[in-house]
TrEMBL record:
<dbReference type="GO" id="GO:0005524">
    <property type="term" value="F:ATP binding"/>
</dbReference>
<dbReference type="GO" id="GO:0015833">
    <property type="term" value="P:peptide transport"/>
</dbReference>
<dbReference type="InterPro" id="IPR013563">
    <property type="entry name" value="Oligopep_ABC_C"/>
</dbReference>
<dbReference type="Pfam" id="PF00005">
    <property type="entry name" value="ABC_tran"/>
</dbReference>
<dbReference type="GO" id="GO:0016887">
    <property type="term" value="F:ATP hydrolysis activity"/>
</dbReference>
<keyword id="KW-0813">Transport</keyword>
<feature type="region of interest" description="Disordered">
    <location>
        <begin position="642"/>
        <end position="662"/>
    </location>
</feature>
<comment type="similarity">
    <text>Belongs to the ABC transporter superfamily.</text>
</comment>
<dbReference type="InterPro" id="IPR003439">
    <property type="entry name" value="ABC_transporter-like_ATP-bd"/>
</dbReference>
<keyword id="KW-1003">Cell membrane</keyword>
<dbReference type="InterPro" id="IPR027417">
    <property type="entry name" value="P-loop_NTPase"/>
</dbReference>
<feature type="domain" description="ABC transporter">
    <location>
        <begin position="386"/>
        <end position="631"/>
    </location>
</feature>
<feature type="domain" description="ABC transporter">
    <location>
        <begin position="5"/>
        <end position="256"/>
    </location>
</feature>
<protein>
    <submittedName>
        <fullName>Peptide/nickel transport system ATP-binding protein/peptide/nickel transport system ATP-binding protein</fullName>
    </submittedName>
</protein>
<dbReference type="InterPro" id="IPR050388">
    <property type="entry name" value="ABC_Ni/Peptide_Import"/>
</dbReference>
<dbReference type="InterPro" id="IPR017871">
    <property type="entry name" value="ABC_transporter-like_CS"/>
</dbReference>
<keyword id="KW-0472">Membrane</keyword>
Amino acid sequence: MPPLLDVRNLTTHIRTGRGTVRAVQDVSFTLEAGETLGLVGESGCGKSMTGLSLLGLLPPGGTLVEGSSVRLDGRELVGLPDRELRTVRGNDIAMVFQDPMTSLDPTKTIGHQVAEPVLLHRGVSRAAARERAVEVLGLVGLPQPRRRLSDYPHQLSGGQRQRALIAMALANEPRVLIADEPTTALDVTIQAQILALLADLRARLGMAMILITHDMGVTAGNTDRVNVMYAGRIAESTGTDRLFSRMRHPYTQRLLASVPRLTQDPALLLPTIPGLPPDLADPPTGCRFADRCPYATARCRAEEPQLDGTAEHRFACWHPVDGPAPAEIGGKVADAVAGAATGGGEGAAATTGLAEGPAAAGTVVRPRAPEPAAAAAPLLEARGLVREYPLRGSWLPGRDRRVVHAVSDVSFTLARGETFGLVGESGCGKTTLGRLLVGLDRPDAGAVTLEGTDIGTLRGGELRRRRRDLQMVFQDPFSSLDPRMRVSAVLREPLRIQGIGTAREQRARVAELMAEVGLPERGLDLFPHEFSGGQRQRVGLARALALTPKVIVADEPVSALDVSVRAQVLNLMKRLQAAHGLSYVVISHDLAVVRHLADRIGVMYLGRLVEVGTAAEVHRRPAHPYTAGLLAAVPVPDPAQERAKRGAGIGGELPDPAAPPSGCRFRTRCPLAQERCAREEPALRSFGPGHTAACHFPLVAPAADSPSDVAAGRP
């Protein structure tokens, strides 16, 4: 009996102004009913283009090369007339795209969009299509599905939009679902819910699934087999358990090693993959991974290896490895040379041709943050910060005034050379708090002091001078860097605004900054779009460093990056901290990232800090159920662990910040909630030196309460 989906020699070429891009090359695999196949690799490796090619959804200039074959239940799809192929799309094979906000039509209701494929393929009445929409919206766990029919995409949360997109794909009960990075833009808690939903739907509906992702943790817990793709080709193909324990391709080994882990020693630098994937308009001779591979020989650069091995495990490598890399492969921060701390740089970008070199010579020694008990006066202090935003229209006469409680009575301190991590889901107030810390927004109550000076009282030139000490790195470097300015102008701008140095001195400083972040000086003449994502984030870090600040607030600095590039940027941040004695406030929804960087962690929920402690203590002994839920939701690149914790974590979504629950704000999602939680708001209590949490029913026994400790966020 033939497999449900049989792909043979799939090859996709795209004609562009700079030549023919060989996006997918000789890709072959099968998919059985009820099976989940993972396609994993870095951005640009051909994962998404493989998924699109299966459906014939090619970009302008794209063609399937002769010899490509895609068979569904024995029926050849390549070469079908458009009319017949359209009956396959959305009916037999459906696709869930990465970003639901751009995939959903903002001008049409959710009900219209979910019912549309039913009307198109089933030929039923509008009333029947509407009822089917209600049915599938309920199937994917969207609350009050009938009411959601009249909602527009912007009225739903990120997780709800993704559920609506899945409902659209499932409306006609497809036999194959292609999920292209379905959780990349989501918090770890919502990601866990969506992945559990997909697994449940696959089992209930008996459909097969292709899961496209760059996240090795997501791959570990949600696939049966995995194809690791690199530069348009399959580099390795085997069962999920075997891939993670006995991988044979060096690329797979390095990809897995670069994943931050909660259990990893923060003193170790993350292993990285130097360089970038090759330009597929001009692919190299021989093995396409050779320029980035630590085991490459002359043969690798001359002869291209083909997929070899057994039917259960195939790999394309002349010098295969045997299992994971040693845990200490990254080296210690204290022993790392500055160039090594950047992971060797990102290498030659396909768009720029830049090769990043070492930033400086010497040994990187990360300054140890002072122990809480021995800490002197804090460098930065937040005291009782409150920030509320009135809802549109609530100021009109006769209407109740409704406000969004973005930040509610938040206090903490930051020592010199320390990294404080702010963790929580989207909408919990992390970014608003970060903006308050650097003076981009003003609190309604409370104060932010830097070296004892309340920055809220500063005005004019005094405020401008003080802002040199407080800088911010934003989540998306593409939107935060002016696309019309060359990088040289981007980096000179803060120096010019502050009137620092002559033009010659500014040019010298800009060149120095490029070296600091591991970018070559010739990149100064390029525009932001000519850099890779990781390189743009390096430019963002260089701009933040231009004024030699004392504190940098980094808002989700690596969430938009591939895992290998993420490791490079995290290592770079550690090296810069060591070189300049910087203090960081790192904002993230990923506890594994924060655990790697932070000395202390503050966990935020719906505008409040619910737990604060050292990174080690919060990881080892979480006191608040929300913290424990965030930890449980972090994907682990270990199939056995991921399967064991399936279904654990936090259910539901963040409540409306304009109408937070009474008492404990987490009670509506807490597995331990009792009647008292609705009546009384819990106060912060001490759970040991420097460790506080606000919970009536904590997971560990509290120490003697100390109000003075709680107020300062430190002992």
